[in-house]
Write a sequence for this structure.
């Protein structure tokens, strides 16, 4: 075996950053040592692993083929090192990406469980839209993702964690809040404030409403739920948000859930991970504890 773990680590970090200089900074190496290590690996393998596009280095076909295999070797090496160092089987870092709804309502409790039962596991967390989490898992920035709705990419496995229901809400002073039921025609006349395109909430809502209304009057689109919630509570807009995001505001009378019989919008919150990912006991532990948590304390969603 002519290549080294150091060379694979350089290759993997250059793939992460798209830059030899940035990879050198991450690995605490000189730029010349990083370039030499990568050049030696390419020479030994007899294939170019990167091609330059502008200022970035992008994986070639051979680089894409090598990357999951290099990830597997590096992960195994980390487990060996951490296992002997800490004398603890489940130790090391898991990189988790989560969309907003699970990040706010599920992930904190799950991290608390992991911290209590598996204190040697370190968890880094990125919170983004569902589409960005999926991209992050595909790009190896995350070992595991928790997303809203479906993922149709055959490069990823998906496992349902729980069901989430969406509600169409208005302020307490909105005219629709006084109606026992709201029609599709009334929804078509309303002004809307919605989550941004790419979010799981927006995708689920549009999938349901597109069967009834071709063109909604969308006045504003925002990434952050608190902004949308406040605009609706204090204005004349409608929105569609996860029940967990509006439950407290419905209970205190600031928002009203509208009864639209034609629309019953639900979706799954799910784990996603790469099909070609090496066996990873940290990811398996995180998924197992998440499913156990939902069985012990099912949420009204």
């Amino acid at each position: 075996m002519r290549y080294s773990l150091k060379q694979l680590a350089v290759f993997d970090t250059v793939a992460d950053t798209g830059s030899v200089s940035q990879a050198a900074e991450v690995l605490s190496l000189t730029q010349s040592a990083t370039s030499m290590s990568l050049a030696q690996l390419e020479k030994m393998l007899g294939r170019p692993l990167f091609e330059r596009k502008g200022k970035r280095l992008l994986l070639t076909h051979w680089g894409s083929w090598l990357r999951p295999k290099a990830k597997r070797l590096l992960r195994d090496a980390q487990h060996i090192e951490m296992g002997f160092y800490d004398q603890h089987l489940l130790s090391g870092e898991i990189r988790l990406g989560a969309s907003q709804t699970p990040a706010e309502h599920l992930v904190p409790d799950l991290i608390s469980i992991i911290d209590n039962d598996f204190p040697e596991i370190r968890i880094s967390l990125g919170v983004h839209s569902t589409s960005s989490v999926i991209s992050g898992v595909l790009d190896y920035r995350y070992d595991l993702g928790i997303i809203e709705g479906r993922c149709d990419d055959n490069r990823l496995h998906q496992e349902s964690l729980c069901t989430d229901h969406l509600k169409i809400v208005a302020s307490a002073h909105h005219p629709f809040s006084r109606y026992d039921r709201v029609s599709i025609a009334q929804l078509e006349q309303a002004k809307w404030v919605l989550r941004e395109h790419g979010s799981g909430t927006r995708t689920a809502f549009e999938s349901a409403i597109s069967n009834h209304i071709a063109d909604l009057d969308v006045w504003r689109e925002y990434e952050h739920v608190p902004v949308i919630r406040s605009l609706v509570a204090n204005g004349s807009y409608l929105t569609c948000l996860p029940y967990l995001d509006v439950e407290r505001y419905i209970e205190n009378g600031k928002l009203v859930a509208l009864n639209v019989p034609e629309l019953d919008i639900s979706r799954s919150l799910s784990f996603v991970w790469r099909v070609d990912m090496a066996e990873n006991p940290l990811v398996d532990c995180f998924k197992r504890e998440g499913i156990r948590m939902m069985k012990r304390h099912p949420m009204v969603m």
